[in-house]
Specification:
This protein is α/β, with parallel strands linked by helices. The chain has one domain: 3-Layer(aba) Sandwich (Rossmann fold). Helix content is 42%, strand content 13%.
């Protein structure tokens, strides 16, 4: 039970810290998303590395989450198509991904990457700036700054994602990501960053819905297709956004 307790305590502490220290930033991000939704626009969610991709999956046609979310699920960055393809390190790749997903001026982008140093992360951020896209970055600034500038996994510019975004939400990902110690071994096991990312994303979703409701706007959310009336309720959203959201 000791390792299970370690993991539970580490994750609980991480979520509590995000709640206590990042709630205002989550609210700031949610306000940008609410503005986009209220103006009949969409927002994008992008994990600019293999496992951060899971947050975009969470937002794709997910019961309880906002309909006008364009989940960026590029096969070159997803583990199911090969975790060692290293597309995240290829210069120019991110710009083509954003072009394919029709990211345009005036949009809102929520980008997840714990380290915030790889080529795809930095290229995404600079392309958002060029396009005039508001960028919300969920990343770990202390982790980014702990990686040496000459580390080969960095973008050639040596920049950090946290220095390029309009809003930065700290995910507090620890160095090396894993959080559980094993007696007799020099490394830790079991990462917590995915749970932190999902907590942040669903918190942004919840706060966005609260803001919209407070403005008298019915939050446009998916209803579970596994409950009576869910499929029928979702049909209007599918009709409206088919061809706009890439993965409907």
């Amino acid at each position: 039970m000791e390792t299970i307790r370690q993991y539970h305590d580490a994750v609980s502490s991480l979520i509590d810290r995000i709640m206590n220290e990042q709630a205002s930033k989550i609210t700031e991000a949610a306000t940008l998303v609410a503005d986009a939704v209220q103006n009949d626009n969409i927002f994008h969610v992008f994990g600019s590395g293999g496992h951060s991709n899971m947050v975009a999956i969470e937002m794709c046609h997910r019961a309880g989450n906002l309909i006008p979310c364009n989940a960026i699920l590029d096969p070159g960055l997803s583990c199911e198509h090969g975790a060692t393809r290293w597309c995240e390190k290829v210069q120019g790749y991110a710009q083509n991904v954003l072009r394919y997903y029709r990211v345009k001026p005036g949009d809102v982008m929520i980008q997840f990457n714990a380290y915030g140093i790889n080529t795809c992360s930095i290229d995404t951020a600079t392309e958002c700036r060029r396009l005039g896209v508001k960028l919300i970055a969920v990343t770990s600034p202390s982790l980014s700054r702990s990686i040496p500038e000459d580390f080969p996994g960095r973008h050639p510019s040596r920049q950090n994602l946290c220095d390029l975004a309009d809003v930065v939400i700290d995910s507090y990902t620890p160095y090396g990501e894993a959080v559980v110690e094993l007696e007799g071994y020099p490394f830790k096991v079991s990462p917590a960053s995915t749970i932190a990312n999902l907590f942040i994303m669903n918190s942004i979703n919840a706060k966005t819905c609260e803001i919209l409701a407070g403005r008298g706007v019915k939050p446009p959310v998916w209803i579970s297709g596994n409950v009576p009336g869910g499929t029928e309720s979702n049909q209007a959203g599918m009709d409206k956004y088919f061809g706009i959201l890439r993965h409907l």
